[in-house]
Amino acid sequence: MTQTYNLAVVAGDGIGPEVTEQALRVLDQVAAQHDLAFARTEYDLGARRWHATGETLPQSVLDEIRGQDAILLGAVGDPSVPSGVLERGLLLKLRFELDHYVNLRPSKLYPGVPTPLAQSVVDKGDIDFVVVREGTEGPYVGNGGAIRVGTPQEVATEVSLNTAFGVERVVRDAFARAQARPRRKLTLVHKNNVLVHAGHLWSRTVDAVAAEFPEVAVDYLHVDAATIFLATDPARFDVIVTDNLFGDILTDLAAAITGGIGLAASGNVNPDRTAPSMFEPVHGSAPDIAGQSKADPTAAILSSALLLDHLGHPEAAAQISTAVEADIAARAGAASAPRSTQEVGEAIGTLVAGGVS
Amino acid sequence: MTQTYNLAVVAGDGIGPEVTEQALRVLDQVAAQHDLAFARTEYDLGARRWHATGETLPQSVLDEIRGQDAILLGAVGDPSVPSGVLERGLLLKLRFELDHYVNLRPSKLYPGVPTPLAQSVVDKGDIDFVVVREGTEGPYVGNGGAIRVGTPQEVATEVSLNTAFGVERVVRDAFARAQARPRRKLTLVHKNNVLVHAGHLWSRTVDAVAAEFPEVAVDYLHVDAATIFLATDPARFDVIVTDNLFGDILTDLAAAITGGIGLAASGNVNPDRTAPSMFEPVHGSAPDIAGQSKADPTAAILSSALLLDHLGHPEAAAQISTAVEADIAARAGAASAPRSTQEVGEAIGTLVAGGVS
Ligand SMILES: CC(C)[C@H](C(=O)O)[C@@H](O)C(=O)O
Ligand SMILES: CC(C)[C@H](C(=O)O)[C@@H](O)C(=O)O
């Protein structure tokens, strides 16, 4: 009997629709092989809608999305819309309203993938880590303001809000992930020598939860030092747990060193399943190459693998990541011309159809 | 006639004293050749004093330092002191009280210096940029707090404070530096799609000041994207202007890709000269190697070059940086054993004494 999931699709702006199309193609192919089906509802959200109606995420749409089983998102943001409107009003609104407190961002350097790092760095060991980025607190809460805007007396604030409740749940999730990985190592990244209030809350929480996971080795890095290690010895990382803003920064750098944001997938996960989780590539809408079929859909495709895993289908998920790995290996071998968005999707689709697993 | 400057020396913790000793040796050598002298006052500040007296920076010491012409600082921080006590109570206190609003951090990849970047990235062009990090505002103001500490109801905040006054003066300084450099390019780094209040203040200010510098080309990057470019195409940068926290993060990464924090110098500059400026290596106190004569004093030595430049002696400053460059080139050639802190200082001192300029 086929198990059918209701899938909200928010293709969004720029290259969002192109890469989402390929992700859906591969998702449907692998689903069919596992007696799964996705009943899609497409939501027209993003720059077009904002220009047409002034809306970013109407309450009625949010309510509808809340009833779905999962969300696949392409990309959000367009230069024609003032910076922050769609990010805060749509993307972050979804993450916050749906309580996506675990923003999961795996980084793995696949064999043959070009990296900006020197061979001597790559040779230090396998680069294969996951960043557990807090998704509902920190400097992202939108708790700031400004007075006397546009005058020489302007003052603008941004408030980072951090709660024991919010920090503990994401730290516990990160420990559980570390426990389930072979190396069992967790690194807290913060800046507790400057942001002492938030930082000490994070440090104390990690110390407390560590007692429940005696097999997990724990260390701490300031965020500035963490960027050094990402550039000089990324193999040292296994699971990183960090706040919303530091996680944003570290995961772009992590993507860069593991082949670029064309390959970086992410899940905005609500581990309590009180609302649907959302899966999206780490990359943005890349308006400069939109509509030209130049975007690499691999990150979107890998995001659909994270989606399958979250829904409880790790084998189906592995089928996608294995196909992606095979495709990447094939690319690395051939000094071929760049492929179109569709060609990459088709190639991975063919590998999935071939029953690679 | 010899011009004498009053120099406050805060050697600090860990490797601070070792590297400062070498910086002072080289500074004195080059000073003598330029009819300059430094009358030093050493201030016993840091972990030892805190343990002995509970003081980080007594008002009377601050008042005395305020009367000096410049400050040379080694490093601050020790694991025996709770994280944040010395950083907030001494280092940041000096930066804030002495209005060091320009935190100047040049990055240059010298020929022959090992970098973690692939040759293909290095080949893209000369890596030679400067980060102008705001030093007296942003998330570093220490404007945060916590309630119900240690309970499940704990809430901790960190407030980023940004003023038109504070942003404009550092942005104008950065434009002036860009104007004086051959490439005349300025990149604002922020996160104005999420931190919209602070971010838009920064963006509007850059737009406004740009009108005064029509020859400077301006662009903008989100902080996450900036880390990608630092890893994949650092030659794209000339002058980066950014806030206190983003500057902290970017400059460690910048140091990593240009040979490591053993080489990264910085100036905490008060361009209005209402108080002495302070020069320090970007690296920390590295307690793990303290007292072993393993620390590379190059960053401290280069910081003394920035000090000379700030005091109006660019030729003396260039003499130091040229000597450092020659020393680095010599290191790169010889596959020699690692040198002690003192040996590096002596080698650079010899090059300076040889009248390299
Ligand atoms: C688009 C932006 C709001 C977003 C973020 O900052 O979280 C993006 O950079 C990401 O990492 O998903
Ligand atoms: C030690 C610490 C407070 C300091 C900072 O965050 O500014 C250091 O990292 C630096 O970059 O000078």
Automatic annotation (TrEMBL), chains A, B:
NAD(+) binds at G284, S285, A286, P287, D288, I289, A290, G291, Q292, S293, K294, A295, D296. Its EC number is 1.1.1.85. It comes from the Bacteria. Binds 1 Mg(2+) or Mn(2+) ion per subunit. It is found in: Cytoplasm. The record marks Y140, K191 as: Important for catalysis. It is an enzyme of class 1 (oxidoreductase). Mg(2+) binds at D224, D248, D252. Substrate binds at R95, R105, R133, D224. Coiled coil: none annotated. The keyword Magnesium applies. Its main location: cytoplasm. Transmembrane segments: none annotated. PANTHER family: D-MALATE DEHYDROGENASE [DECARBOXYLATING]. Catalyzes the oxidation of 3-carboxy-2-hydroxy-4-methylpentanoate (3-isopropylmalate) to 3-carboxy-4-methyl-2-oxopentanoate. The product decarboxylates to 4-methyl-2 oxopentanoate. Homodimer. This is 3-isopropylmalate dehydrogenase.
